[in-house]
Amino acid sequence: MPNFSNLLQTIVLNNSCASLAFFEHWIGMISPNYLTPSIERLVIIETEYYTYGIVYLIKHLTLGNTLQYIHLVFEYPDDDYMHVLVTFVKTQTSVHSMILEVENGHRKFTKDIYSHLLEMKPFFWSRAVQLTLSVQYPFEIIVILQSGAIPLLEHLNITFEQEQFEEKPYLQEKQPDIQFCQSDIRRMTDATRLQSLLLRHLALNQLIILLDSLNMPLLKKLTLVDIFDETLANLDEFRRVVDHNHLPALKHLYFLLCFPGNFNEILNIYLMKYGNIWPFNNIGYHLDEQLISEDCNGKTLMKTVLLFYTHPFDILQQYIRTVHNHSFTKHSNIIQQRSIEWICNKIDSLNQLSTTLNILAGGHLKTLHLHYYKMKTPIKLNVTNSLWSDIYFHRLRSVTFTFEYKSMKRSRRVYIIDHILNVSPGLSNLVVDWNDFRSCSCPNTNVRYVHFILKSNYDDPNAHIDVNHLFQLLPGICCFETSDRHIAFNQSLVDFVLKIINTFHRLVELTLNKEGWLPVKPEKQLAIKQAILAADNKRLFDSNTYQIIFPIGDKLTIWL
Question: What is the side-by-side order of every strand in the sheet holding 556-559?
Answer without folding.
Answer: 322-324, 339-344, 367-372, 398-403, 429-433, 449-454, 479-484, 509-512, 556-559, 547-549
